[in-house]
Amino acid sequence: LKKLDDYSDYDDKIVIGGNTYLNIIPKNDYWFLWGNIIVFDNSDGTEIGNSTYGKEKENSLMKASIDVRSDKRRLGIASNIYQWIEKLTDEKLYPDTPHSKSAEALWNNPNRKFGFDK
């Protein structure tokens, strides 16, 4: 598995808490998928989460799929990813359904700081 130090070709980078978030935009993007975000734990460089975001068609809604390692869930990583996607794209996200129970809980949280109705 690749670690944080293995990535040198990325488009954007932020550090939040003890994690580094990299945004990687595919160079030949004919599906209108705008990017991938990979999240690493700074203590050991291992991947703890990832996301693919974009649109299915040019004028469709912005959506994202997210996976966070089970031992790192409920720490705000998915929320940070969603908020960063909205900042990077200047577009509001819409839920990609169907989704997991944890994603359902996140999207139903009235205090979330991302999404089409925020």
List the helices and strands and how they pair.
Elements: E1 12-16, E2 19-24, E3 33-41, E4 47-54, E5 63-68, H1 77-89, H2 101-108
Antiparallel strand pairs: 1-2, 2-3, 3-4, 4-5
Weakly predicted, low-confidence segments: none
Q: Structural class, please?
A: alpha+beta
Evaluate the radius of gyration.
14 Å
Main sheet, how many strands, which sense, barrel? 5 strands, antiparallel
DSSP summary, beta strand count: 5
Q: Give the strand order of the largest sheet, numbering strands 1, 2, ... along the chain.
A: 1-2-3-4-5
Beta-strand percentage?
25-35%
Number of helices, where a helix is a run of at least 4 consecutive DSSP H or I residues: 2
What is the N-to-C succession of helices and strands? EEEEEHH
Distance between the termini: 36 Å
Q: Could you say which overall geometry the principal axes of the C-alpha atoms support?
A: globular
Global mean pLDDT: 92
Secondary structure: helix percent: 10-25%
How would you describe the overall organization of this protein?
The chain has a five-stranded antiparallel β-sheet with strand order 1-2-3-4-5, with helices on one face. It has 118 residues and is α+β, with helices and mostly antiparallel strands. Helix content is 18%, strand content 29%. It has helices at residues 77-89, 101-108; strands at residues 12-16, 19-24, 33-41, 47-54, 63-68.
Write a concise keyword list for the protein shown above:
118 residues; alpha+beta; five-stranded antiparallel β-sheet; 2 helices; 5 strands; 18% helix
